[in-house]
């Protein structure tokens, strides 16, 4: 038991700053900031969230791989988060039926990790996007518009990576590459002994529980409960426990920083946009290095974004922390049901 706690705690605290990919992280944060600033300049603040989410999430797909894989992964991520945003917007009109829908989405997105690390990443981004945009009732037109804005944000992010490379070294587009997506695994491992199959089942149960809590409580931005469940659920217990500890610590740090900066400095709109971009930078830079630091970044990003559209920082911060704690309890509880066959899996998420 002591060794288990040591493994979990050390996993949450480990930092490898030398492995931070600063260039794609800075590029991604700049794109997010510019998208938000454009919305402020034009006065169309309703477009802020879908544009920012599309740009940030596709920025997460700009990972350490050869160029041919990177732009394809980013385009694939753009496609699937767009579809997820549309489906989430449509599902927001179905009331309690959302519980079954989010369970189905969670099961699929959790299982696709068996096809490879990039598939796991896109599955994660897809289910999180679905949950975000199922959090507020929308009509069909708004759901389609929301999906289109997410796509635009993703395409801008992809272009920011591709265009400079195309100008500087166009030959890289002709270099053969080996995809790490192994879609045969989806069919061959569709059985109850597979750890990702079990992970998909547990994620479905956790998301259904979290969505039920959200619908019952009726909090503003209560969709943060199922969204947090999606972020912190991993195929193994040690990884999940580490993720929960890091999530709570990072959320507390992010809330304190955001409140101190926005309320203490009385940030105006464009200054808030830059601060949101800073939060995005922290998340993009540290998400594969130290999850607690990355969570502080996404907390800054989320709360500042809500502040920009008029929500009180104190109220949003309280909901953020409570949602994180509830999600952590749900995920830890569900992790003991149908556990992975192996003690420790390669953290595909």
Provide a quick synopsis of the model:
The protein is an all-alpha fold and 349 residues long. It is built from 14 helices and no strands.
Class inferred from helices and paired strands? mainly alpha
Q: Average the pLDDT over all residues and give the rounded result.
A: 86
What is the string of helix and strand elements? HHHHHHHHHHHHHH
Overall structural domain count: 1
Task: Report the uncertain regions.
Answer: 1-12, 343-349
Helical percent range?
over 70%
**Biggest β-sheet, characterized?**
none
General shape = globular
Radius of gyration: 19 Å
* Termini gap: 25 Å
In DSSP terms (H or I, runs of 4 or more residues), the helix count works out at: 14
Number of strands: 0
Query: Beta-sheet strand percentage?
Result: under 5%
Structure description:
With 349 residues, the chain is an all-alpha fold. The chain has one domain (2-335). Helix content is 73%, strand content 0%. It has 14 helices and no strands. The chain has helices spanning 2-13, 22-42, 48-60, 67-91, 98-111, 117-133, 140-168, 184-188, 195-217, 224-232, 237-265, 269-286, 291-308, 313-335. Helix 6 runs antiparallel to helix 10 (224-232), helix 11 (237-265) packs antiparallel against helix 14 and helix 12 runs antiparallel to helix 13. It is globular. The two termini are 25 Å apart. 52% of the residues are buried. Mean pLDDT is 86; it is low at 1-12 and 343-349.
Write a concise keyword list for the protein shown above.
349 residues, mainly alpha, 73% helix, globular, disordered N terminus, disordered C terminus
